[in-house]
């Protein structure tokens, strides 16, 4: 039961991580590091799926007794290879990167050739692909696992060193994901090192406790999901942050509705959407809410600049404007009514609802407070506060 549960969990994590990377590679097909990570996950998923009995039986029917063991391990080696390539493709020096990739490709080719030759030497004597159930006193079979495990120890240790270097130099959430991935890679390297020692001991006829073999398998079972979570974490964290920002912008967009409606009615020529976009496409587009939000902020600020002469107190050269949102809302509502009746502005443009800092967030906060105060007064006067908040 525990084995099936772990298998299901690993399969779900694999599917989610692979789907996310495929989505990213579709958006950026020429991103070499992203392509390497995607191929790494594809190789890992293939080794995981092809080890299942239905697929292993079909491979054995086509390629012979040792084919499932060979195919599965080749994909595992490919996973480690593409993991190293991810860091190589991330290097700045393109010439040095190409040289190192060729070197790693040669090492992988030699390891794969060694696995193929030892599989042919084993023949049909050991059809079982399970490491725990094999008799490793056969030199060819022992050589097969020694080659595979030694390459994995080399590749995973190299990738672990680069992962730690990148994690130290990165910020969250990328650093968190890299440290999680480093934990998974390190655990896999430890498991492969243990299996290398076990292979040598069993090759020499020594007895190995089943608990030790099982422990190495459990380490791998825990390391693989940890690695996948680490690879996917930065993208997931950024997506969550993007969803939070989108929700915040949507909320601010609607809260600015009362202020925008009054100013848009007074100055319709200041609207930025002279060419109307298709409404349903604008709403379905991932950046549509941000576009509408920024447009509404700009239009509100432009409208306040134009109505500000009517908000300035008259006499004694006073240039101050009430900064309390409630007082300013009353002044603004009265000024817009005077403008509607054709009364001229008594002064020049002045500063209205000035933010305390130069940040856009503070500017929007001032506009939202004014809009909320207007909404209360419009409701008191019997005018719906959101009567035109969705027109743009």
Compact description:
Helices cover 73% and strands 0% of the residues. With 392 residues, the chain is mainly alpha-helical. The two termini are 56 Å apart.
Helix-strand pattern: HHHHHHHHHHHHH
Mean pLDDT: 78
Largest sheet at a glance?
none
Tally the beta strands. 0
Spans of at least 5 consecutive residues with low confidence = 314-319, 383-390
Gyration radius from CA atoms, angstroms: 33 Å
Question: What portion of residues is helical?
Answer: over 70%
Q: Give me the number of helical elements.
A: 13
Oligomerization state of this entry? single chain
SS-based class: mainly alpha
What is the percentage of strand-forming residues?
under 5%
Describe this entry's structure for a reader:
The protein has 392 residues and is mainly α. The protein contains 13 helices and no strands. Helix 3 (53-63) crosses helix 4 (67-89).
Q: What tags apply to this protein structure?
A:
392 residues; 13 helices; 0% strand; disordered C terminus; rod-shaped; mainly alpha
